[in-house]
């Protein structure tokens, strides 16, 4: 986009009662201090934005005439299309585009569609860019510089670090990767410290249990089994003796019980045999006939025979019990209590030694596990540290590449985008230097040269050409003129004088 100023008409604006100016390729404005040279540039920024040429508030009314209506009309040509913008202000502002009244929002939108305010003022006044906050300056320049590609940055890094980051950036962004490993490094570092303390504690415990190192657990276990077998053997002998004694006692009880029954059966049989037979009816007392007497005798004989048979049967059973009792040996219950206690004591002592040896084995296992965990944590901690160092190296090289890209835009200017902190990190800054001197230390002439170079860079990168106003131009003898129209203001004795040159300029002097 090519923007040129054709004409400006000023009425009751600051120290100008009435002024009409036709711009040329070069427009030189001469006059003493206070003649209104800078006010012409303020009139341009005021009609466009309602501000002075440095973006500050502006009171347009002439001195000592606050009732006058200020008016500025600027005719400009944008890519061959002529437009006149007018702003009037007395108590309230009025806006016109090609003499057509417009609302403030319509007017401001029209101007905003033509160009960005900060970009325009930065190219119109070489001082404006440097009057902005450093963050605004930084943002304005960096919008024209592509962020370095990862491949560009990797090419600047040591191969090992570059390969490490390439692999990890496949699954995470750089910022996520940094957050992830900052957290993991912090966590693993703390866990590694605790793991080291645990390993040391276990190793110290192992030293304290050094007496158990020579214990043969297998041999102790065999000895325990031998003693347990002997103790179980004693217990089995006691149990056998008790079982034998219980069996004999049980059979003897049966024998005694059956012997008593046999004795009573004998008495019963004798009682039946001694019974006197009744030959008379017990009811009526009459003598029984022969058949009845025979029945009585037969009944008596049968009962006697049954008693004898029952006695014989019990006698046979008694004999069997006696034989069964005789078959069970009489075993004396051995006194094994003292030996069993002795064996138990020996077993408990051996088990204590065995348990100590097993604890030692478990302790050694715990030590091995603790050592492995310590190494694992150290490995992960170191991996995170290496990745964080690679990220820091990447960011440093990324900053370096970015600075190179920005510096490549300029000829005599250098730009500092970052400041190195004591902890190795960087913070964003923006400082312009010329010949190694910061902008704040430059002379008026150097600041103008610096500003003109910034104008050319912004114009080239944005593709927008606007007129440039150089105030205090008398302070600089030689400089490269900007691509667009050049408007200079120089202090010279006398009233305001304007010279217009319609020529292609290369170098102004």
From TrEMBL:
SUPFAM superfamilies tied to this protein: P-loop containing nucleoside triphosphate hydrolases
Gene3D superfamilies from the UniProt entry: P-loop containing nucleotide triphosphate hydrolases
Keywords: Coiled coil, Exonuclease, Hydrolase, Nuclease
Single GO MF annotation: exonuclease activity
Keyword Hydrolase on entry: yes
Coiled-coil segments on the chain, per record: 192-237
Quaternary structure (record): Heterodimer of SbcC and SbcD.
Recorded family membership: Belongs to the SMC family. SbcC subfamily.
Name of the protein this chain belongs to: Nuclease SbcCD subunit C
Species of provenance: Lederbergia wuyishanensis
């Amino acid at each position: 986009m090519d923007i040129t100023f054709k004409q400006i008409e000023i009425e009751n604006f600051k120290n100008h009662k009435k002024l009409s100016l036709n711009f040329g390729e070069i427009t030189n404005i001469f006059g003493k201090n206070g003649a209104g040279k800078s006010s012409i540039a303020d009139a341009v920024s005021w009609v466009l934005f309602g501000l002075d040429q440095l973006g500050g508030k502006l009171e347009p009314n002439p001195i000592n005439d606050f009732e006058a209506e200020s008016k500025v009309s600027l005719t400009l040509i944008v890519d061959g299309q002529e437009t006149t913008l007018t702003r009037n202000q007395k108590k309230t502002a009025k806006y016109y585009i090609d003499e057509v009244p417009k609302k403030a929002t319509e007017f401001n939108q029209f101007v905003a569609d033509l160009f960005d305010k900060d970009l325009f003022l930065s190219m119109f006044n070489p001082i404006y860019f440097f009057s902005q906050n450093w963050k605004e300056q930084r943002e304005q320049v960096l919008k024209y510089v592509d962020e370095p590609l990862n491949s560009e940055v990797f090419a600047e890094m040591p191969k090992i670090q570059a390969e490490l980051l390439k692999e990890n950036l496949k699954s995470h962004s750089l910022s996520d990767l940094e957050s992830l490993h900052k957290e993991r490094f912090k966590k693993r570092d703390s866990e590694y410290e605790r793991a080291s303390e645990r390993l040391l504690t276990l190793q110290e415990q192992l030293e304290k249990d050094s007496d158990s190192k020579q214990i043969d657990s297998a041999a102790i276990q065999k000895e325990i089994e031998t003693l347990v077998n002997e103790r179980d053997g004693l217990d089995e002998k006691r149990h056998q003796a008790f079982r034998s004694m219980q069996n004999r006692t049980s059979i003897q009880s049966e024998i005694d019980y059956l012997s008593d029954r046999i004795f009573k059966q004998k008495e019963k049989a004798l009682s039946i045999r001694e019974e006197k037979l009744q030959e008379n009816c017990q009811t009526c007392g009459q003598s029984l006939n022969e058949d009845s007497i025979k029945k009585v005798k037969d009944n008596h004989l049968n009962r006697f025979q049954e008693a004898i048979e029952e006695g014989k049967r019990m006698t046979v059973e008694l004999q069997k019990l006696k034989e069964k009792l005789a078959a069970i040996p009489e075993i004396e219950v051995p006194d094994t209590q003292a030996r069993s206690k002795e064996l138990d004591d020996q077993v408990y002592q051996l088990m204590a030694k065995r348990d100590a040896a097993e604890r030692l084995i478990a302790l050694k296992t715990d030590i091995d596990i603790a050592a492995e965990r310590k190494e694992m944590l150290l490995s992960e901690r170191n991996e995170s540290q290496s990745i964080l160092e690679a990220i820091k190296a990447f960011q440093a090289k990324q900053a370096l590449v970015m600075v190179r890209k920005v510096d490549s835009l300029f000829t005599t200017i250098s730009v500092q985008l970052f400041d190195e902190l004591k902890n190795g990190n960087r913070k964003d800054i923006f400082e312009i230097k010329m010949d190694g001197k910061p902008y704040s230390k430059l002379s008026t002439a150097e600041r103008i040269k610096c500003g003109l170079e910034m104008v050319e860079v912004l114009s080239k990168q944005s593709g927008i050409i606007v007129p440039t106003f150089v105030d205090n131009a008398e302070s600089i003898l030689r400089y490269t003129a900007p691509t667009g129209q050049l408007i200079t203001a120089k202090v010279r004795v006398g009233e305001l004088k304007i010279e217009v040159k319609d020529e292609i300029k290369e170098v102004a002097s």
